[in-house]
Specification:
The complex is a heterodimer of chains A (169) and B (164). In chain A, 38% of the residues lie in helices and 27% in strands. Chain A is built from 4 helices and 8 strands. In chain A, strands 1-5-6-4-3-2 form a 6-stranded mixed sheet, with no helix packed on it. Chain A has a two-stranded antiparallel ribbon with strand order 7-8. Classes of the chains: A alpha+beta (169), B mainly alpha (164). At the A-B interface, α2, β5, β6, α4 and β7 of A face α1, α2, α3, α4 and α5 of B.
Chain lengths: 169, 164
């Protein structure tokens, strides 16, 4: 958006503008809503209630006995008789003590667990997501289809900085 | 979250009855915006944090009603003035239908914080796990196809009886 706005400024200088600066209220509203979204994002990033495993591993003493609910895309690694190895997409893997019924190596897992300062987790509740990858692939198709339909029926008028219906649409 | 096929099929089935009496062609662009609104909460959050897990906390507001509404507002403002209200209505209705469907999903933590930024309390009805919902996506497609065939036949009959 900011790059596009910069382009608008250059249009003004060139005396060609018929775009967003002819419509200052819209310009102000877009900037205002973008700032609001940034504020929400900042608030979420700093005040969320969940405790991430990586935070616990960085400060084990401070998080001893705390309930961990957030992992960086967690997968089941090796399975043992009394638990399993939790593999994160980003961050170290951790030993989890839990019931091993229904666990399957390589599958995604949702987990709520108590962190112990020695560096392991005690599962409180867990759920294996057997079809997560299938869900992602199945979801990719409609997302691409909607993108294609948008391009087919709408066009972005750069000079006016607005999306318009294509004539035949 | 249910898969996006389920989300789109659900919003399609909700919207279609409102379009039956009018010509389908003029509605299509706005139906596309409804679909876009329906998938918006997931494509602006899930697609990012699956690839970059560290973005989870920052993009999370986009999967809440307030955040989605703000995003729909920004997108609607990018439309030409004659389309803006309709674009906002369709995008935000789509996002709303997304959250309705997500409310039925079971979660380990109990639900989604729909009242964000006022509260982080998870809220949800929690009927089905996301994996269980996925099994029904062919059913959703079949229902959409049956409904569309039904509408097509009804329209044909109506034009036929008018021409007589």
């Amino acid at each position: 958006i900011f790059i596009a706005l910069f382009r608008q400024c250059t249009y003004i200088e060139a005396g060609k503008n018929n775009g967003i600066f002819m419509d200052l209220r819209r310009f102000a509203a877009i900037i205002g809503l973008c700032l609001l979204l940034l504020a929400l994002s900042y608030f979420s990033g700093h005040s969320h209630p969940w405790i991430a495993l990586n935070e616990c591993l960085e400060h084990p003493e401070a998080y001893d006995g705390q309930l961990v609910t957030k992992y960086e895309e967690s997968l089941i690694g090796s399975i043992y008789s009394d638990g399993f190895q939790l593999i994160q997409k980003r961050g170290p893997s951790v030993r989890v003590y839990s019931d091993t019924t229904g666990l399957q190596t390589g599958k995604n897992i949702g987990l709520i667990a108590v962190f112990h300062k020695e560096g392991y987790l005690q599962a409180v509740s867990l759920r294996v997501s057997r079809n997560r990858n299938a869900k992602i692939w199945i979801s990719a198709f409609p997302a691409l289809l909607v993108g294609f339909l948008c391009i087919r029926h709408f066009r972005f008028n750069r000079n006016a900085f607005q999306i318009e219906l294509k004539e035949y649409a | 979250m249910p898969d996006l096929v389920t989300h789109i099929a659900f919003s399609h089935l909700v919207r279609r009855p409102f379009e039956i009496k009018q010509s389908g062609k003029s509605h299509l662009p706005f139906r596309i915006l409804l679909y876009l609104g329906t998938i918006l909460p997931d494509i602006t959050t899930r697609s990012l944090y699956i690839v970059f897990p560290s973005t989870h906390d920052w993009t999370y507001p986009l999967h809440t009603p307030v955040g989605a509404l703000v995003l729909c507002g920004i997108i609607a403002l990018l439309f030409e003035s004659s389309l803006r209200k309709k674009a906002f209505a369709n995008l935000s209705t789509g996002a709303g239908l997304h959250f309705v469907l997500d409310s039925f999903q079971k979660q380990l933590i109990g639900g989604y914080p729909w009242l964000f930024p006022f509260s982080w309390k998870p809220i949800g009805i929690g009927l089905l796990w996301s994996d269980d919902i996925l099994q029904y996506f062919p059913v959703w497609i079949a229902v959409v196809v049956i409904v569309e065939i039904g509408i097509f036949i009804a329209k044909k009959r109506r034009t036929h009886s008018k021409s007589r």
